[in-house]
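Q: Structure tokens for this one, please.
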Amino acid sequence: MALKKAFHELTSRGKAGRLRLMARKALEQYDLKVSRIRLISNDMNGIFRIDTHGGAKYILRVALPAGGHSVANLRSEMIWLQALAQDTQLSIPQPLAARDGRWVIEVAVEGVPEPRLCMIFGWVPGGDLANHISVVNMTKLGRLSAELHVHAAGFESPPSFDILRFDKVFPFPEPVVLFDDAHSHLFPDGRREIYRQAVDWAQSAIDALQAAGEPMRVIHGDLHQWNVRWYRGLLSPIDFEDMMWGWPVQDIAVTLYHLWQHPQYPALRQAFQRGYQTHSLWPERYPGEIDAFIAARAAGMVNFVIQNNDPAWEIDLVEYSEKAARQLRALLDQRH
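A: Here is the predicted structure, written as tokens:
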């Protein structure tokens, strides 16, 4: 029997229902006695909580095909998570292999127009760190960031390891549309020039890192307060999907970008740095280096949002680009 609606015509709830079919099909490849499947989120990837009859809990991710991550990229994510689980005491979502040893399962079902990649991780308890922002917790987050960077510095990747590289301002495979004429209406009053200056600044910072010969290492790439769980004071990083080869200053900039609008930002930034320095040297080589990569994150977010046509986001693009331009101007004005 043919389905009545195409996938793109469905509501968010309707889409989640079809992704649930994918989750069920993927679970056939695992030795899990499943008692319940619950949707956690469908904002980007489809995220499901899996409960088993034995009481164990897992997370199953149905990856968004437009996310730009290949099977090799996602397999590499699982490889680093496994190494972190073996080599550190960090609380992380431990990867679970399928019955045949695969980390990533490709699944296709009727009603979803393309196959999707599914992965399972151990459950990490707690809520978003975003609901527990404090100087104390930012100190803990700084140390957590340093622990990830220290481990990455000694991590020996296998030949099959394949992830993105943050050697350019826009590291993801989506096209750069910020400067296309088709989007000029989003950048009135010379606003586009602010973006050009910010991108040039960030690229100069990348060029300086490369010229200095500092080796790249694996970085989380998306370590912000919605990708860290807080449970009874313990912080656990999650969602390593955007991990890439890069430098610690780039990773730190992502964290700080998402705290930048907080009214206590200066104190939170200082606390993060103090926590980082309890485990490693602060990696910023000159004043403003991290700010250049905060600018890169701001430009990258606008470039992403322009292309995201998901109506659930309901973003006013003109207002969004204007707000980002104000942030970029503030960063540019305080350059050393």
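A few notes: The helical segments are 12-27, 71-87, 135-154, 191-212, 248-257, 265-277, 289-307, 317-333. The mean pLDDT is 93.
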